[in-house]
């Protein structure tokens, strides 16, 4: 649920306006949560009809067409499966491409800051990052991927904690900047910056709101993992409910973004 897409939220506030983006975070987050719940409910219902405990996205679309009351839809059940799988591939390629560029650009910034490998171009870093990316994609075990995601989330939360720590020290507790410099040494420029959020308009233009919605939709990027995760759970019913995996995960994601 939590990935590099969370860092697109700041741009969303700039694109859509302060209060419009604030509203869109909760609105789009709620829509995303509802859609995920519907996917899980449909999967569980069709699994009972088919007598199959495992249905991925394409199989679920095929089962839905196969059990339709309209003969026309039944005839196109295989096409529905291929269409959904194609859409899923396009979705994953889009999300992965943005995340891929996101990671490489930040690696390049870190290397330039510490003056290490400054001679490497963006293209060279993209090629170098291709190797670990391909190796990770060969891993088909959800359990193994979960550990990789957990490590990534640790780094994300560590980054957020460092930023919040300096913000508290510098701007809330009014500790002199020299003290922060002693605590953070040469990392001050990475974490201490002026953020004139009061200058943001409440609402921007229509194009800005649309761009903001797109950025926020990218921050809720876990749709493709819902069914694989549910299919691997010992108790799939735990995905549903107010305290289920989906609701809790999406709530934590929205809370972190705010």
Which labels suit this protein?
single chain, 258 residues, 12 helices, globular
Can you tell me about this structure?
The chain has a domain at 4-139 and 202-245. The protein has helices at residues 9-16, 18-50, 57-66, 71-75, 77-113, 122-137, 142-172, 177-184, 188-191, 206-219, 226-232, 245-257. The longest helix has 37 residues, at 77-113. The mean pLDDT is 78. The protein contains 12 helices and no strands. The two termini are 15 Å apart. This is Aa_trans domain-containing protein.
Nutshell version of this structure?
This protein has helices at residues 9-16, 18-50, 57-66, 71-75, 77-113, 122-137, 142-172, 177-184, 188-191, 206-219, 226-232, 245-257. The protein contains 12 helices and no strands. Pfam families: Aa_trans.
List the helices and strands and how they pair.
Blueprint: H1 9-16, H2 18-50, H3 57-66, H4 71-75, H5 77-113, H6 122-137, H7 142-172, H8 177-184, H9 188-191, H10 206-219, H11 226-232, H12 245-257
N-end to C-end Cα span:
15 Å
* Secondary structure tally, helices: 12
C-alpha-based Rg, rounded? 22 Å
Beta-strand percentage?
under 5%
Estimate the global geometry from the Cα principal axes. Answer: globular
Overall pLDDT score: 78
Determine the fraction of residues in helical runs and give it as a percent range.
Answer: over 70%
What would you call the quaternary organization? Answer: single chain
Secondary-structure-derived class: mainly alpha
SSE string? HHHHHHHHHHHH
Low-confidence stretches: none
Biggest β-sheet: count, sense, barrel? none
Number of strands: 0
Keywords: Membrane, Transmembrane, Transmembrane helix
GO molecular function: L-amino acid transmembrane transporter activity
Transmembrane segments: 18-40, 82-104, 116-139, 151-173
Protein name: Aa_trans domain-containing protein
């Amino acid at each position: 649920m939590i990935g590099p897409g969370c860092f697109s939220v700041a741009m969303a506030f700039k694109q859509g306006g302060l209060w419009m983006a604030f509203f869109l975070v909760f609105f789009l987050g709620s829509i995303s949560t509802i859609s995920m719940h519907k996917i899980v409910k449909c999967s569980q219902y069709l699994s009972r009809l088919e007598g199959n405990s495992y249905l991925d996205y394409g199989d679920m679309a095929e089962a839905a067409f196969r059990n339709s009351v309209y003969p026309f839809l039944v005839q196109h059940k295989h096409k529905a499966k291929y269409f959904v799988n194609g859409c899923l591939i396009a979705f994953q390629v889009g999300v992965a491409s943005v995340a891929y560029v996101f990671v490489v650009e930040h690696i390049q910034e870190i290397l330039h800051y510490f003056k290490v490998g400054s001679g490497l171009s963006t293209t060279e870093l993209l090629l170098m990052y291709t190797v670990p990316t391909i190796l990770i994609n060969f891993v088909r075990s959800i359990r193994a991927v979960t550990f990789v995601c957990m490590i990534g989330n640790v780094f994300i939360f560590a980054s957020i904690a460092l930023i919040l720590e300096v913000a508290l020290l510098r701007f809330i507790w009014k500790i002199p900047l020299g003290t922060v410099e002693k605590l953070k040494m040469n990392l001050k420029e990475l974490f201490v910056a002026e953020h004139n959020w009061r200058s943001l308009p409440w609402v921007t233009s229509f194009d800005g709101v649309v761009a903001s919605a797109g950025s926020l939709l990218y921050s809720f990027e876990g749709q493709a993992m819902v069914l694989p995760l549910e299919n691997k759970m010992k108790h799939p019913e735990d995905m549903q409910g107010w305290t289920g995996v989906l609701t809790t995960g999406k709530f934590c994601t929205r809370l972190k973004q705010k």
